Amino acid sequence: MTDLPLTGGCNCGVVRFEVTEPLVGASYCHCKRCQRRSGAAASPSAHPAPGAFRIVAGEDTLRMWKPEDGGEKWFCGECGSSRFGRDPNQAVVPGNRLKLSAQYVRKGARRDNESLAVRRAKCRGS
What average pLDDT does the chain have? Predict the structure, then answer.
């Protein structure tokens, strides 16, 4: 079992995050938008429990892109690394300065990047 918190961040190290509870799942998205954003055939994501995700450094460098028909995609404004995404209609976590509650964290963004079985693949807006 992996020690908690799980930690991760962007390529340049400015944005850092932690997940304080075990991840509840993982998925791949195969839509064209995720393929273009990741440069790969699928975009792997890990899903933290509600309220278990928080930014610990670099909040002021985070940038967000929200397509008309999709959720928010958050990335580092310095190096461009895609870090996490969320649905703005999801409940806000009290005490989180940016009111961010991740629905998924890019699997490659985690420092330990231990194995987590993918249980679903989602394909929207191909």
Answer: 76
Question: Residue 74 class from Cβ within 10 Å (0-12 exposed, 13-18 middle, 19+ buried)?
Answer: buried
Domains and CATH numbers, the chain: 6-122 (2.170.150.70)
Q: Are 84 and 68 in contact (CB under 8 A)?
A: no
Q: β-pairing, 16-19 with 53-57?
A: antiparallel
Most confident of 29-33, 58-62, 113-117, 119-123: 58-62
- Flag whether the pTM goes above 0.85: no
**Cα 70 to Cα 99: distance, rounded to the nearest angstrom:** 18
